């Protein structure tokens, strides 16, 4: 397998985790309940840990001397490869949780598939992450059920979030040439398979949550994986990268 | 003194822990509720000044450590509220008192965090002071509180070390980084000394709390301990403590230090700190905006309990 | 007069104008009425023009080769000298307008005083700005009257903003050593005099607006002029300075 | 055809302007209202993609120019709404139609601005196309509209030049800046061509509008004009137009270009562009959050009119 392709694929994995972790970090100490504060930080931490593993491996494969911090703090928006879903603003807590649930479901099936990757290092990182992402999936699914089947207000708010974020869910399965190459090399799991798992799980949770699932064939946004983002990402990065940019060459 | 009260004091004097189900004087209960909940509130509000730098931490490793620290603080808040609840008050009542401004939290969190170095200074000085305050409380007379403090102190000592490590990296860094560290020390030094509370001479209720063993050392004793511990660390960092009167007294073996600006302390306590209003507003907003969420969880639980 | 002091004083003038202009720019296309959109941009533009004049002169006085962009884009928060008032978030539109009114009133009397500055260049810039700041003052005073004496809701909202921002109004008149030196050198107008003009004008507008003026002797925040800011400024700068930081040495 | 209508058409054919008080066919009025208000909406919504970079403009001078441009756009919106109002519809009704999604604005603003180079590309390509579209309208049959367009076009030509100037600085800049410029051209090229609307073959209502002289050239003619004007500019910048089929036809004296992806055009029009939802939501939120403000001004005016 072409090292450069694997490097690019690892960036996608790392960027997804980092950007979502960054979004969750913005909520530090501002969650709707203390237990949520704990859980949000916990998930943000797990994702950050995974980011570091993906980036470190990516940096090694690239062999250009870029470490995890160079990859996180010294790339501009067009060089980021995360899906659009993850850079969407936190919105209200239903938005935050639906975004999380869409991602967690995909992430779980992806990581589960990656444990069988032909790339031993990727398989090992996936193995290490599997427990974390299983917990994330349980937690966000459980919350979606309780919000959907909670009060009339929480149901409506969650349904609105479900619909608003739906158009960002397709990109995770929309395999481009790079993704296909990864599948062909046995590095990544098949996209169509992930999608059918995703639809089944999301569907069953929505059913339990008395939420209506938007049509599977709805129009889907894309571009993030190829570096064409929404207007949000630039702001996220400007904030995140400030110190590394303002004090180049410093050690922290 | 009534029999109950005498027996109660005798247990304390004998070093036996008071437990939730035991009889206790109403004033003891009230003092403890105030003290524990104030500590819990401080953990919760204390997430905010640090949360302010999580999204801007300069490396992924530092970000990770800071996030973990903030998570610990939420955890401390949770088990301190639980400890308070053993005294017959609910977490919601305590939060209500915080949000309405009736209850206090540590005034130190009313100062802003203005640079990354503040993450170092808070760990080093603020957590450092907190530990000095709290270590004696691991041996306090109220069982649930003492057990909570043991857990808290274990984690806090990590935080203090991590803070010092941030300062160390900055002090060994570029001139700009070193200036950042010095500036943070300048801003956090005096507020950290104030964390121990008013001078013993002006401290109310101390005698009774001592007798009940929920205050084991005087404010001034603990403050001295903090100065003695911190000055050599600052020297090692190559930073200057912003106190021209600071000097080592070889006879006493302690550092002497300048007068604390108690006017500032009382002004911040009264609500005039740079961030009092903002901290409280952030918490109140989070709470109010979270109401529909908590209601939903309750509604779901009610439905499915039937 | 010591050049360095004048340089520092010019930074205060420039930073005030720049940070408020930046705050107003965040509202681009998001004002409560089209006429407000126009006016906000207009004021932001005026302030930006003034910033450039102050900075250019400051850079010349400093003689270290820093131009207006070096001063705007390559200083960190502790090097900014603006008053805390100006970095406060836009909040709701009453907050935005009260912040503006407090500033405009001070700014008008200051600029008016600076037209008589012993420093000819400062006097000339002030002369050039006077028409602009007179218009700003008329506009924000007029809006405060209409909001205060509008509906019950607008009255309450404006009164809340009046009280919330009051503690940031004192810093503008709290003259430190540098300000005093400027007064002594005939460069800047007297602080106590500005304050009495300010109190009189704000009081008369509030009276017309049926708003209650907070006590003149209330506790006042300070620190901005000496580089000790609120937590807001760092975010403002991270956003504003991103391109200059991320692409050092580029010409735009 | 009724007498009224015949006389009306005769005036138009004679090049006499129709004024607000003149008789006009209902369809003429409706078409104009739709066209003018769509243009006005585009000016207003068009502030947003550019507003996205004002706070991040790389120099104070560029920031100043961009702010001034956005201010001009708000101004254009204002006098276009006024022109529409002469046709007997209120600005609030028009805004209501925008906010409810009934009225359209130019689809180009449903694309995101992803880098500073987009400020260049929008000025150069989007304003450039707008001018080509609008210049003929300075001679259109409806007086208030034609006068508004004269004013608009004068300012737009500044904007286009300023946009080109941004591109020029980038194209002559660092390799990273040049890549930024090329990427912006890649993303904005085709959407700019789509701004002229469907190919003449698929264009509805064109014949009637031509006859009324509110449409003076066909979409394809104007599009060709834009391509012919822009290709040499891109060459001068050293940038590549993202169209492998683009080539100069020496015989016709025009550039031939590849097929436009009309599926994308219709998809964005239908609401599937990257920013459709966000642009509208931003405007609606601004409007709704501004309601108390507008109410207050009204209440004040009412009180003091008495």
TrEMBL record, chains A, C:
One Gene Ontology term from the biological process aspect of the record: phenylacetate catabolic process
One GO CC term, this protein: cytosol
Signal peptide range in chain numbering: none
Protein name: Phenylacetate-CoA oxygenase subunit PaaC
Species assigned in the record: Duganella fentianensis
Lineage per the UniProt record: Bacteria, Pseudomonadati, Pseudomonadota, Betaproteobacteria, Burkholderiales
Recorded name of the encoding gene: paaC
């Amino acid at each position: 397998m072409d090292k450069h392709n694997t490097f690019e694929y690892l960036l996608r994995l790392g960027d997804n985790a980092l950007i979502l972790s960054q979004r969750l970090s913005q909520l530090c100490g501002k969650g709707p309940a203390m237990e949520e504060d704990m859980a949000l930080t916990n998930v943000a931490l797990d994702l950050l840990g995974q980011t570091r593993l993906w980036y470190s491996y990516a940096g090694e494969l690239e062999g250009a001397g870029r470490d995890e911090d160079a990859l996180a703090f010294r790339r501009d928006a067009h060089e980021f490869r995360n899906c659009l879903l993850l850079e969407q603003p936190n919105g209200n807590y239903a938005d935050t949780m639906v975004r999380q649930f869409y991602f967690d479901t995909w992430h779980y099936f992806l990581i589960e598939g990656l444990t069988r990757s032909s790339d031993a290092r990727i398989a090992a990182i996936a193995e290490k992450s599997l427990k974390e992402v299983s917990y994330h999936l349980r937690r966000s699914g459980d919350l979606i059920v309780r919000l959907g089947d909670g009060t009339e207000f929480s149901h409506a708010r969650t349904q609105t979030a479900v619909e608003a974020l739906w158009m960002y869910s397709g990109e995770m399965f929309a395999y481009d040439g790079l993704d296909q190459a990864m599948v062909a090399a046995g590095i990544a799991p098949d996209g169509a398979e992930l999608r059918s798992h995703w639809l089944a799980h999301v569907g069953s949770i929505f059913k339990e949550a008395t939420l209506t699932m938007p049509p599977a064939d709805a129009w889907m946004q894309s571009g993030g994986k190829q570096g064409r983002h929404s207007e949000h990402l630039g702001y996220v990065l400007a904030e995140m990268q400030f110190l590394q940019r303002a004090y180049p060459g410093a050690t922290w | 003194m009534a029999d109950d009260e005498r027996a109660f004091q005798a247990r304390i004097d004998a070093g036996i822990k008071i437990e939730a189900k035991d009889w206790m004087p109403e004033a003891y209960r009230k003092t403890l509720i105030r003290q524990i909940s104030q500590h819990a509130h401080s953990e919760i509000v204390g997430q905010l000044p640090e949360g302010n730098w999580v999204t801007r931490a300069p490396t992924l490793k530092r970000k990770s450590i800071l996030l973990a620290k903030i998570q610990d603080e939420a955890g401390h808040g949770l088990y301190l509220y639980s400890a308070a609840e053993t005294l017959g008050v609910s977490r919601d009542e305590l939060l209500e008192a915080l949000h309405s401004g009736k209850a206090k939290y540590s005034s130190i969190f009313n100062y802003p965090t203005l640079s990354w170095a503040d993450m170092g200074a808070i760990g080093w000085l603020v957590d450092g002071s907190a530990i000095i305050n709290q270590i004696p409380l691991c041996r306090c007379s109220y069982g649930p509180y003492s057990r909570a403090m043991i857990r808290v102190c274990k984690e806090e000592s990590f935080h203090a070390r991590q803070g010092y490590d941030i300062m160390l990296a900055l002090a060994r860094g570029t001139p700009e980084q070193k200036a950042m560290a010095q500036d943070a020390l300048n801003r956090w030094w005096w507020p950290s000394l104030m964390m121990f509370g008013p001078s013993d001479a002006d401290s109310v209720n101390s005698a009774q709390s001592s007798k009940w063993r929920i205050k084991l050392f005087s404010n001034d004793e603990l403050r001295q301990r903090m100065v003695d511990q911190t000055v050599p660390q600052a020297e090692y960092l190559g930073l200057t403590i912003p106190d021209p009167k600071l000097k080592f007294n070889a006879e006493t073996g302690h550092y002497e230090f300048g007068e604390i600006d108690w006017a500032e302390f009382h002004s911040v306590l009264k609500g005039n700190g740079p961030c009092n209003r903002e901290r409280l507003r952030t918490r109140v907003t989070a709470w109010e905006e979270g109401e529909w969420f908590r209601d939903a969880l309750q509604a779901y639980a009610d439905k499915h309990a039937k």
